[in-house]
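User: Fold both of these, please.

Assistant: Here is the first one.
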Amino acid sequence: MNRLLKFFKQLVRRVSLFTVNPFSILSESIPTISMQAFVIFMGLLVVLGTLLDIIHKKNVKYFFENAKKAKKSAKKTLSTGKKTSVIFKTILSDIATTSELGAGKRRVAHLLGMYGTILFWIASVIMIFCYSEPSSNTPLVWPITWHAGAIMTVLGGFWFWFFLRVDVYSEAQPWYRIIKADLFVLALIASSLFGLIWSFLQSLDLNNRWDDKLFLILFIVSNLVLFGGVYWSKFAHMFYKPGAAIQKNLAEADGSRDNLPPPADAPEQYGLGIKREAPKHY
């Protein structure tokens, strides 16, 4: 009976972790203004890194030039209503549900990571700017959203990293092979994972032990790498992909098809070899 009671006490304590605002506790040792300044600094790093990426890669210039070419080769003029319909459909399908990935594991992992990150970031900003004083009474929805978002990001990120990466899944590369393009996903996973561990250790009230302080430092460093590495990582792709998807669907609707030929009318014939295994070699 005592063991059962002890188990339930531990369970309640662990569940209560999800209702605690870790930034409110942190404000007892670090000024609130410092946390808010850090968030603003991260936002400025994203803006600066994205602008440098635009200047270096000339992505926006390419999109505008491609749009001009498509307009000249368009077979019909789309009305404002039709354009609005295409844009909304793209946002709801291609962007919000990543339909381009199909109905498979890759799409589920991507949605976990994407919406987990969005929840994690939104809850972080709201708790830091609105409820980060020691006396703050944080609504339960925000710490629960913060912890749930972090867990979703970690699950989706690890699922992708160990099982779904093209170079691991299709090219038989080891999972520990890291290239510069992996900076974004690794920093994203690390920031959520270290944030969860820091929040858990901080809630245990370890009486000034080093554990929670170590993971707080790792949490800060991983965020610096994530937001400060925009120029070298795939972070900026989050801003380009929606624009590219909208442009592609508008080009299909007006008949220009980005100056590509239309699909062939001939039936798809790949031979019997296509049935031996699912296509995965890219």
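And the second sequence with its predicted structure:
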Amino acid sequence: MGKIVPTFIYWRKNSMKAHGKRLPELLAAYEAALTVYGLGYASRLRFLQRAGTLVLRHERHGKEYLDSEIVADFYREIAERHYSGNVSDMHYWSVRREATRFLHFVETGEVKLPNPQRGARQALTPEYERMAENYLSGDMHPNTRNDARWVAHKYFAWLDEHGYSDLHGVGAEQIQKFLLDCSLKMSMNSIHNVKLHLAKLYVYLYKSGLSESPYQGLFSFKVNRESKMRPVMSRDEIAKVLCGIDRKTVGGKRAYAVIMLGVVLGLRACDVANLKLSDIDWLRGEIKILQQKTAETVVLPLTKDVGEALKDYILNARPDTDAKHIFVRMLAPHEPLKAAVTIGEIFRDCCKAVDLDYGKQFHILRRSLGTSLVNAGTPVTTVAQILGHTNMDSAKKYIAVDSEHLKLCAQPFDGIAPDERLGNPAAAERTNPIGGDAQ
């Protein structure tokens, strides 16, 4: 079946003049709406990247507001590229779908989501909806709130599906059946999250007088989550990446400062992107960071090498802008980097320049730092403090890749005599015949 260039446009010209908001404001509002609707970080990022292609088209034309002609040209160009075979079907439909979703939000203020697969998008009874919203209105990190919403909606929808329109008659038996049902459909990591947030939900329900018990004993079981061995970079590879950066250029100065924050301090990509000028205390030689993942504050030493890299970028390469964030776009408008993925792209490009392929895995620098600290004999408790881990188990994983010390745990085979019968099939058959005792 041939590809057809569509002649319709997904936008009305009068809608463009109605909102009067600049494109960055629209994207920020769109991201906030996606968060409210319960989308996780990865999903929000995917939606924003696709919408960003339309925004980038406006920036190239020097437009701060949505323009009907640019939107029409955008749809027409992607359709022509699809028709000529320059882009795949998947890419074409994905770009068009997400651009349309963004424009629909601008026009209506509503996010038109895909098929409801996550619990957060399941319709609830008014009473359950009220319980969920009151529970989620508490003090939570945005990422935690997304997971909590997913579990609360899934649990309440399950109760309603099984004939419980409210919590009357709901107790330990129903909780166990729900968890059992989840165990048949979910991975161990998902089951862990369900148990964790369901326990927190019942603490809220108990304190609110909506449940006769928090059922703490019921949630006391441990879920053995899947744990993968993640790669780390060797010292030589890290040195190769740093030496390959051209620090004479604007982009090189920014890239070098970004990589140094990962190599020396082990910062997460999201924290690097969110780093502000006010977070650096030059007099005390400290960097104070509110971690995006844990919402915990960590104070790290501003080492000389990291300080020099940041100073070189800020004084000699950073554009003149009122932005509070340290790392901003090199091209106008000089706004803060949108997300952690941009930090990952900087890392990927630096690796590619020296023929290394680690993709956008900026987090590998954090793992490499943790592993090198453990290899050097640093206590796991100290590693946890340096990396800002609130859970000690998060730091213990670095022990798994400490090959040198793991060799010391290997048991020798001295004194273990091999069974001589293994080399004598006839003897083995007489002593362990298949089908009956030897006569």
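The first helix runs from residue 13 to 19.
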